[in-house]
From TrEMBL:
PANTHER family: APOPTOSIS-INDUCING FACTOR 1 (PTHR43557), RIESKE DOMAIN-CONTAINING PROTEIN-RELATED (PTHR43557:SF2). The keyword Flavoprotein applies. Keywords: FAD, Flavoprotein, Oxidoreductase. The keyword Oxidoreductase applies. SUPFAM superfamilies: FAD/NAD(P)-binding domain (SSF51905), FAD/NAD-linked reductases, dimerisation (C-terminal) domain (SSF55424). This is FAD-dependent oxidoreductase. It comes from Streptomyces halobius. The lineage of its organism: Bacteria, Bacillati, Actinomycetota, Actinomycetes, Kitasatosporales. Residues 429-450 have a biased composition (Low complexity). Residues 242-263, 427-450 are annotated as: Disordered.
Amino acid sequence: MRTVTVVGASLAGLYAARALRAQGFDGRLVVIGAERHRPYDRPPLSKDFLARAPGAPAMAAGARSPSDADTLALSDADAVTLSDAEALSLSDADEDAELAAEWLLGTPAAGLDTAGRAVLLADGRRITTDGVVIATGATPRTLPGPPRAGVHTLRTLDDAVALRAELHAGARKVVVIGGGFIGAEAASTCAELGADVTIVEAAPLPLVPQLGREIAQVCARLHTGHGVRLLCGTGVKALRADGRGDGDRGDSGAPPGTTTRRAPRVTGVELADGRLLGADTVIVGIGVRPATDWLAASPLALRDGVLCDQGGVTALRQVVAAGDVARYGELRAEHWTSATEQPAVAVRNLLAGTTVARHTAPPYFWSDQYGSRIQLAGHRGPKDTVRIAEGSPEEGSLLAVYERDGEITAAFALNRPRPFTRLRRRLGAGRPAAPAAPAGAPAAAPGATP
């Protein structure tokens, strides 16, 4: 191959570029990104980044204190964003030079011309290529209805900059729609900032599909134990607004520095059960969908992601996929770890022209909320039983295992990192010995049905 194009300049895209060079590809390397930023670290966006006041010194990767960070004299929102992008950057100038990639940022891909062996860009450019790595990630789901100022999603750096500016400008009543991990982390940070926070979750408990009822209850107590109101089992009927929409302001959720016509500002959230919640700010965290719109006219199979084999290879051998956009067999993982592991496998198969390697590591993710660390690894099934092997909810620290037919399928930990890490390693090695149950522990409980 003389040219390989990586479509997607986030975590998986960067790891694909690294893997290409590490595996000996010395041809032309093109990286296409819809965002204007080089690859940056997303996990801090809902946590430390959001908590830090705009313009406050940021701690760059590798820095030991804010004073070590390469902060800039900040005079406007764009400067803030540029400084934040540097602080969150996943690479440095030396690595960028070693990669020797052409970065085409700020313009999304618009199509894949397989007959012409080209990636088409939204600005009309056409990148002729011999191989393609699809790493376009996912896009937040939004609520239906007209746009409202003060309503935010939290996926990109620009999203986080806009939300942070509003929170630190004095938003006191925050409604978080969706109690998944992004919603939970955002709620935790808003509570830390002193806001009056309410989470609205359509399911009986947040995270029931991922964790089952028993462990979901443990996580729900984190919210209520820190003063966050949790309303479950109801949906959102409509967003209330102030009815004004004239004038130009930069608080519509558009990138900083962008002047847009102001949408009416949100004032409340009307629930399906008739309740009305006052709100200065609404954070919508109702999941994501894989970013595959640009592939709709391609011959690739799309079903909640780009369908691949376990090696990331699509129906076209010169096209592979990795990260949030890729469905490996029956699983599409939206986890940081998968986005760092899958690209090397997919690139190896791309360069080989066939599937010679497979990604088999169990899914793993972590979440930091209210000063607690939550970790989950493995493949939990809806009928698995769950058993607390160490600690207890009352201690605020526990290790739980999910089991099926006597075998451990997944592990969960709350503030129990060491035993969790040991068990995760064993899960990855395919020999997950079960921790002994503590004395007096209750019998295994059947898994919850979402």
